[in-house]
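WARN no homologs supplied; continuing
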Amino acid sequence: FTKDSANTNRFTAPDLSNNGVWPVAEITPGKVPSSFNAADFDQIDVYGKKQLTYKGWPLYYFGQDMKRGDTKGVSFPKPGVWPVVNLSTPAAPGYSGSSNNGSGSGY
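OK structure emitted
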């Protein structure tokens, strides 16, 4: 969400009423694909949920994307508001590196 900034979710409502459209990407134990740097991933607390971040950007998924590879949320509702994260994604404004103090995150 382009209105977010480093480790700050500016979309999710306190009552999670809009979490059905753009749910926060909650942390799932696993490994980061080898093409990504695990140090670029972290987590933030968002109204009782642990939201995954990448280079400081809070991550979401589109509620209507039901299976791997679905991309209905790309550029919804207009281009540029909900960009796709990839290796060339720049760091979020104000991001100065992982807040996990180099301890590894286990994502």
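DSSP finds no helices and three strands in the chain.
OK
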